[in-house]
Design brief:
With 71 residues, the protein is α+β, with helices and mostly antiparallel strands. 46% of the residues lie in helices and 18% in strands. It is rod-shaped. A hairpin with a 5-residue loop joins strand 1 and strand 2. Strands 2-1-3 form a 3-stranded antiparallel sheet. The termini are far apart.
Length: 71
C-alpha cells in the first residue's frame, strides 16, 4: 500500500502499489509518507467518542457517612 496526494494537495488516498504507479505516471499525484495520511485523513474520519462528564452526586457510601456524622 502506498499513500498518494494530488499535486494541489486536496486529495490524500491510500492505494495498492499497482494503482499508485498508475496514478504517479498518468495523473497528477505524488507519493507522501504514511504519517501525513494518518494525520490528515485517518484520524479525522474517526468519530469522536463522547467523554463522560463527572457529576457532583454523592455516592451511597458518602451519603451514609454524612448521615452517621449528623447524628
Amino acid at each position: 500500500m502506498k499513500c498518494m496526494m494530488s499535486l494541489d494537495g486536496t486529495h490524500i488516498i491510500r492505494v495498492t502499489d499497482e494503482e499508485a504507479s498508475k496514478l504517479y505516471h498518468n495523473e497528477n499525484f505524488k507519493y507522501v509518507s504514511k504519517a501525513i495520511w494518518k494525520e490528515k485523513v485517518r484520524d479525522i474520519e474517526q468519530p469522536q467518542e463522547p467523554t463522560n462528564k463527572k457529576t457532583n452526586k454523592m455516592s451511597k457510601a458518602q451519603k451514609r457517612q454524612l448521615r452517621k456524622s449528623n447524628k
